[in-house]
Amino acid sequence: MSVIDIHTHYVPRGWPDLGALAGGADWPSLRIESERDAMIMVGSKEFRRIGSDCWDAEVRLKDMAADGIDIQVVSPTPVFFSYGRPGPEALKVSRVFNDLALEICSPAPGRLLPFAQVPLQDPEAACRELDRCLAAGHVGVEIGNHVGDQDLDSAGVVMFLQHCADVGAPVFIHPWDMANSPRLDRWMAQWLTGMPAETHLSILAMILGGVFDKVPDTLRVCFAHGGGSFAFWLGRMENAWHGRSDVIATSEFPPSHYLDRFSVDSVVFAPEPLRLLVDTLGSDRVMVGSDYPYPLGERPAGAVVQRAEFLDADAKAAVLGGNARRFLNLGAAR
């Protein structure tokens, strides 16, 4: 039985000067502090301290062995999405990081599976870059849950998702660029409340915005962080759809109709919320995710699934790896 971690991130150990490459200012850069430590900078501001587990395949593989993980999906860190930049600039940056992702994963083909990033603010360029990446060895794409004030039901994003369905590319949707205010500056509140809320909102946009009515059911999409607060508030959404259809019933069917159209990862850290996910979506719609290697992720990866006594053997096998194998369209040889 293979165990697949659908939610991990990478950061290369350096990249070209993005300002010189694409133009503009205040791009991310990396301040190397030692062989094992670095600081992501955004312009002159410190963004996040990282370690060699972000870029070193050998370190990753050792951690995977310790956690019993056979395969990692390795996705971009969202700070590099660049959705607020002009499309041509974001395309150049996407190409840089997509090529570096292949280098990071190259020591362990079949075990480290790279997901691409695309300039989602330019849907046509995003489709072209996805095609280039799939041909080069990426197995899917990670996108942010919004582009500025445009949610996932905007025409451009729907066009891109349609293309993903057409070419068979799985899509991992990750929250990013959370709302900020003085009330959210304490206790990492942006991450503790903003990320779940953003993820919930992105699922809401795809359901109530009619995205699942517009794209074929061959689209494979997974939401990070357990789908945020969606499972807990599904009843509230259902009640609103039936009770205030004059306001929100833009989808063809009520929210519960679409539960078999998407998956979520298992980064909820306790058996009780995991059980809610399984009870709400089904054991075939939850996959192991860890948010490795970041400190708010789960270590050992998959621990909450491994100790979930309410999962029988078949359900546990599905959550640990079977569902991800189907999501990634991995053949038996892989």
UniProtKB/TrEMBL annotation:
It is an enzyme of class 4 (lyase). Its EC number is 4.1.1.45. Pathway: Secondary metabolite metabolism; quinolate metabolism. Keywords: Decarboxylase, Lyase, Metal-binding, Zinc. This is 2-amino-3-carboxymuconate-6-semialdehyde decarboxylase. The keyword Metal-binding applies. It comes from the Bacteria. Residues 4-330 form the Amidohydrolase-related domain. It comes from Streptomyces varsoviensis. Monomer. Belongs to the metallo-dependent hydrolases superfamily. ACMSD family. InterPro entries: ACMSD, Amidohydro-rel, Metal_Hydrolase.
